[in-house]
Amino acid sequence: MADNNISGSESDKELKFFSEIVTDHRSVLWTIQNFSLCPTDVDEYLQSPEFTTRSSSITTWTVRVYPKGQTKCNSIGKVGLFLHRSFSETEVHHVRYKMCLKDVYGRDRYVVQSEQLFRGNGTSWGRASVIDRDLLLSPKRDELLPNDTLRVYCEITVGCIDGKASTEGTKRVNSLTTPPIACLDSLSSNFESLYESQRWCDFTLQTAERVFPVHKIILAARSTVFAAMFEHDMQEQHNDTALILDIESSILDDMLRYIYSGTVQMLTFKKALGLYASADKYNLDELKTKCKKFMIDQISVDNLCDVATTADLHSDLELKEAARGFFAKNASQILATNSWEELLVDRPHTASQLLEIIASGYTNKG
Question: MATH domain: from which residue to which, for each copy (predicted)?
Answer without folding.
Answer: 25-156
